[in-house]
């Protein structure tokens, strides 16, 4: 993992190829997740740090520990039990947790994230053992400063993930259980982009819940009241953001799984003020746009000429449309208003029209077409809309299974040589079309990406790889770029640069029958490329605050890699408690406060 790091950047505060200071000894050291090595402590370390007699005699390697942990993982009876095992391992030994994930990435990703994490979140209160992260109560905004103040000094925190738990992973309102999605997202940042796990804070805004099961449940741990809306809600959000930026001015803020009334509104409010990101709005848009960039190269089309039909115009659909509009504007020098004219959005009532006015969300308004353009035409039939628009690209975020019918797909194929079709709804049973059908109906000509993993499809003796629009190939690298450059803002040009960096790694650029996106198995290398693109664009836009960022591409990538955290045991250097940093005293990160609270 860390073998490709150079010593020229060892002086950087985040560099990981030098010894790690440690002021803990004995059982205190064994209970600090990010310093603990368990049976891998060397004989010398056991003597020096007071561990003699506290560990079995055989000193083992990290590889041997990972092998044992994998056997324990496999012995768990179901996916939720495996998820719980992984949580327990992370609380004991962070390096081993991430090493195990890296060794079995494809198998374990669905366990620590969607879909199994959704089950863990919905059972948060009944499975609760130990608190982790920050819980902010909408009824006590005056306590936000106190709640956030104990996580270190201004230089100690790089990333904060915050959720209000209203729209979790397709399972809806999970109230205070939203803390687990913040924790899971941070784990993916570490796993996929080397964000230091003890330099992060997971946060949940507890604003109540509209989930009746929780309101009736004696064991539910959150506020037992209906969700707060309006001014009181906005005050908590604003207080949180202002306090977070005051305490941790370098922290990049990631919004996660906010509900439809708030996700886009909050993002629009704070994007001009702080470096922030919403994965549901922007991450989905970026990864989809990257697949589009790759598809356009294969189809020999230009971004400035495309016609896009979005089927499903909720948070994800409008988020994707926004990223496409930004890309059209950047690539063609068109105004954003003109770029929007190349995108048609369809939702439950049909094609979005200006006469719908108050029935449209703020995110939908820019995509509403003039009614006179569609006078006498059917706006509630996807087939008729396809006939009229003649799209090059058809994207589904509707959660309406099988809605891309044979008639619709064949109609689209009449007007473009390589139809670009992305059925993105999750889970698999909600996909707008089956990949095998799409290849059959287009005689193998369609270019495709899906929202869930699919096996390759064989059609008339040719094998086609189906790319998965997995956000985890995208948002970690964007965050890494923002963290390392100390970006002031996350502006649209930075996201377009990140997207193009991802698209440049598409296997389809070498073989048109291969995937439009790289596989998640290569995600750390992907993240380096994305981070480099974000940093270079941020420098161009004069948004960086970090000094000494290299200009040359090769040097920049070395500089990035030197500061990425790896699942490797570092040599421990003993320091006295009175002169130790918070990190050396085991006080850093989400578990650093060493809460003794159980149950």
Automatic annotation (TrEMBL):
Cofactor info, note text: Divalent metal cations. Prefers magnesium or manganese.
Keywords: Metal-binding, NAD, Oxidoreductase
Residues forming the catalytic site: 113 (proton donor), 185 (proton acceptor)
Domain Malic enzyme N-terminal: 90-271
Binding site for (S)-malate: 426, 470
Catalysed reactions listed for this entry: oxaloacetate + H(+) = pyruvate + CO2; (S)-malate + NAD(+) = pyruvate + CO2 + NADH
PANTHER family tied to this protein: MALIC ENZYME-RELATED (PTHR23406), NAD-DEPENDENT MALIC ENZYME, MITOCHONDRIAL (PTHR23406:SF34)
Entry protein name: Malic enzyme
Phylogenetic placement of the source organism: Eukaryota, Fungi, Dikarya, Ascomycota, Pezizomycotina
